[in-house]
Amino acid sequence: MQEVHINLDGSPDLLFVFRHWNDGKLNFRTRLLDISNLPDINWSTSISTVFNDGDGIHDFEAQMLDIDNDGDDDVVFPFRHWNTDAFTLRTKICDAPGDYRTITHQFLCQP
Ligand SMILES: [Ca+2]
Ligand SMILES: [Ca+2]
Predict the structure, then answer these.
(1) How far is the CA of 12 from the centre of ligand 1 (A)?
(2) What is the pLDDT of residues 21-59, one digit of tens each?
(3) Domains of the chain: total
(4) How far away, in angstroms, is 8 Cα from ligand 1 center?
(5) Could you tell me the pTM of the whole model?
């Protein structure tokens, strides 16, 4: 679980990144914090996003970073690719709460 900002309302949200218990797929669960009726606070219903990444993605740590500079946090998995040995960034760009698209970049390093 990590604090992130997803819906840009100024209050922190939560993102759970985990291996789904049924099929092992990469799963994000998002909850948005609502503080508009203080002192009451509310969390939104869980928003689930399931990806088709290979099982190896679970070996790498998810890091939060606003890659596209739109104010919301995206998720980056940095790792060394198992086939090419290239430094690889697999990025999940957050377009809306629960709506992510995947972009992968490989950087081949000279010996
Ligand atoms: Ca928020
Ligand atoms: Ca972003």
Answers:
(1) 5
(2) 999 999 999 999 999 999 999 999 999 999 999 899 999
(3) 1
(4) 5
(5) 0.89
Ligand 1 center–CA 17 separation, angstroms: 17
Distance from C-alpha of 111 to C-alpha of 104, rounded to nearest angstrom: 22
Domain containing 50: what range? 2-107
Contacts of 1 by beta carbon, 8 Å cutoff, 6+ apart: 14, 15, 16
Closest ligand to residue 76's CA: 2
* Residue 109 CA, ligand 1 centroid: distance in Å: 38
Q: 3 C-alpha vs ligand 1 centroid, how far in Å?
A: 10
Band the pLDDT of 109: cuts 50, 70, 90. confident
For the chain, helix, strand, coil in percent to 5 are 5, 50, 50
Q: Which ligand is nearest to the CA of 7?
A: 1
Query: What is d(CA 50, CA 70) in angstroms, rounded to the nearest whole number?
Result: 23
For residues 6 and 18, give the distance between their C-alpha atoms in angstroms, rounded to a whole number. 18
